[in-house]
Amino acid sequence: MGELAARLRTELERYSVGEKLPSSRALVERLQVSPVTVSRAIAVLVGEGVVVSRPGAGVFRAAPRATTAAPRDFSWQEVALSAEAGQPPSRSTDASGVLAALAVPPPDVIDLNSGYLHPSLQPERALAAALARAGRRPGAWERPPVDGLTELRAWFARDIGGDIATSDVLIAAGGQSALTTALRSLVAPGAPVLVESPTYPGILAVARAAGLRPVPVPVDGDGVRTDLLADAFAATRARAFVCQPLFQNPTGAVLSPERRREVLRIARAAGAFVIEDDFARRLVHADAPALPLPLAADDPDGVVVHVRSLTKAASPSLRVSALTARGPALERLRAVQAVDSFFVPRPLQETALELVGSPAWARQLRELATALRDRRRAAATALRRTLPDSLPPQLPYGGYHLWLRLPDGRDELALTAAALRAGVAVTAGRPYFAAEAPAPHLRISYACAPGPAQVTEGVERLTRAYGETAG
Ligand SMILES: Cc1ncc(COP(=O)(O)O)c(C=O)c1O
């Protein structure tokens, strides 16, 4: 569709202002594309103001927009946006880490940056069928219960395991929204919150936007360093720690059994919550050993606030997640979520329920496990050949990422820029650290490329850029 709009834009130069373009039917025949593609491309051009559409009459070249209008003056907003009564937390939000993760590279660039599945790995047909069935459910557009559809909450409770009950689960709009609610509910503005280091930049952004102070605790191959976690609690008196025990983003580390016990013991002793971001639970590879249960399944006293979302294993637009807690904390979460957003749209909840309740869901998870294993192998094989020293000693058996260590002094931003010029998008490591980064890193995400061959080609392009930027 983008290509067609570009082609029509070029063709437009041959038309005079007010002249009629060929009919949609003529374009469909001449360009051998579908009517939907033509009408979408025309909608793009209408939106750009280069054509006007007169229903019943046709589409015409528009007059160029007047360029002589005086520039508008928004300077008053600088004062309005900066004036603070007293000294509340700053209202400016740094979205750079989140927007970098959501960036869509140009079509000729291989994407090894995004945190979501390539469309070919998303269950598109099953999602379409689930959406259609959901639309036919009685009351599909009525207001859902504020906590979420009971059936969906029950499904998430079973999916999490342990003794989690339906009533412990709130339905939220994806992991990001659930994490935001958790941090805003449990930690007061200005207070510290412990985070893993490195960690997902989205959690740092959420914490800072809520006026919290993220305090990093290093992660190694066995997950968070529990000796340093205890020190960090003692030094900061923080009341919450955000942890990804399974296939941590970006390192892929799984919290070892001893450290699982330690994390829970240390948090209990500190009187603090563990916010468990279980984002990668369904991103396990086909060659993985048995997985540990979530921390939430082993938590009699409500220490763990658990987050899991359907976006990562299905589609970024299936923004449905579970936010789980016990005790008064659950009431806090419920209140904050209701005030912020009322509830998650019912058609989306119904769609999620239709999807996870159909045989297509188990099939999706099986196929995904194989596809992720194959892409990890393609990435690791290419890297062993080209940049062997960058690989971690232990390759993750879940998630979508490889966290590459670069030699000291390597400029990772220069490398990511050169990689983009060489035709591959990869992620700089710097935004994953809450404080100074101890070393330069790069993250490769292998689930967003079309297939293992493109993963290999992407690594080769990265290697060329690596050679060009060597100091
Ligand atoms: C570790 C981690 N947690 C949570 C999220 C949020 O994902 P979503 O809001 O799509 O569920 C992401 C997305 O990249 C992530 O990497």
Q: Care to describe what's here?
A:
This protein has 471 residues and is of the alpha/beta class. It folds into three domains: 2-61, Winged helix-like DNA-binding domain superfamily/Winged helix DNA-binding domain (Arc Repressor Mutant, subunit A), CATH 1.10.10; 96-121 and 361-468, Aspartate Aminotransferase, domain 1 (Alpha-Beta Complex); 124-357, Aspartate Aminotransferase, domain 2 (3-Layer(aba) Sandwich), CATH 3.40.640. It is 42% helix and 13% strand. The mean pLDDT is 93. Bound molecules: pyridoxal-5'-phosphate (PLP). Pyridoxal-5'-phosphate binds at residues 101, 115, 174-176, 200, 202, 244, 249, 277, 279, 309, 311, 316, 321.
Helix/sheet category: alpha/beta
The main sheet orders its strands as 4-11-10-9-8-5-6-7
Helix tally equals 16
Low-confidence stretches: none
Quickly give the CATH architecture of the largest domain: 3-Layer(aba) Sandwich
What is the number of E strands?
15
* Mean pLDDT reading: 93
Q: Percent of residues in helical segments?
A: 40-55%
Radius of gyration of CA atoms, rounded to a whole number:
25 Å
Shape by Cα distribution: globular
Classified by CATH, the class of the largest domain is: Alpha Beta
Strand proportion, as a percent range, falls in 5-15%
Distance from N terminus to C terminus (CA atoms, Å) equals 42 Å
CATH fold annotation of the largest domain: Aspartate Aminotransferase, domain 2
